[in-house]
Write a structure and sequence with these properties.
By secondary structure, the chain is α/β, with parallel strands linked by helices. Helix content is about 45%, strand content about 10%. Helix 1 links the parallel strand 1 and strand 2. The mean pLDDT is about 90.
Length: about 160
C-alpha cells in the first residue's frame, strides 16, 4: 500500500508545496482533494490551477473524494444514512462539472484525476446533461473548452 497526501486546498500554494514534499520526500503516489470546501469556489476556479499544474508535472493523480457537505441542503436530514447517500455523489458532480467546464482538463491535458466513493452511475447522466448544454450554448457558457464534455472523459484522463 502507498499513501496519498491530503492537500490544504484553502491554501493552494501550500497545497503545491505539500504535494511536492509528499511525492518527492515521502514516496506518496498522489493526493486527495475534498469535494466540498468552505471557500465558496469550485475546484475548476483558477485559484486551484497551481495544484493541477504540480500534479501534472509530477505525474501523480489527484483524487476528489466526498466530504462533509454543510450547506448543500443535506442539513435537513436527521438520518445519517440519507445524508451519506447524497453527500458523496452530488458534491462530486459539482466538482466534476467545474473541472471539465471551467477548462481544467483543456489547460492540463496530462492531469490524472479520479472522482471517488460515489460509484459511476452518475457519469452517464452528467455527460448527457453537459453535452446538451455545450451543444445548445457553445462558447457562451463554455469558453474554456474546445470539445464536448464527454470527449474529455473519452480521452481517459480520469482514473
Amino acid at each position: 500500500m502507498k499513501g496519498v497526501a491530503i492537500l490544504p486546498v484553502q491554501d493552494p500554494r501550500g497545497a503545491v508545496e505539500e504535494l511536492r514534499y509528499a511525492v518527492e520526500k515521502l514516496d506518496m503516489v498522489g493526493a486527495f482533494l475534498p469535494s466540498a470546501t468552505v471557500m465558496n469556489k469550485a475546484l475548476g476556479h483558477p485559484d486551484f490551477h497551481p495544484i493541477f499544474r504540480e500534479a501534472e508535472s509530477l505525474g501523480v493523480p489527484l483524487g476528489v473524494h466526498g466530504a462533509p457537505c454543510r450547506g448543500f441542503g443535506f442539513d435537513y436530514f436527521e438520518d445519517q444514512g440519507q445524508v451519506h447517500a447524497l453527500e458523496h455523489p452530488f458534491p462530486l458532480m459539482i466538482q466534476f462539472t467545474s473541472i471539465v467546464c471551467d477548462g481544467v482538463l483543456e489547460k492540463f491535458p496530462r492531469l490524472k484525476i479520479a472522482f471517488l466513493e460515489a460509484g459511476c452511475g452518475w457519469l452517464p447522466y452528467m455527460m448527457d446533461r453537459l453535452d446538451y448544454e455545450y451543444e445548445t450554448r457553445g462558447g457562451r457558457s463554455f469558453p474554456n473548452m474546445r470539445k464536448r464534455p464527454s470527449a474529455y472523459v473519452m480521452d481517459c484522463r480520469f482514473m
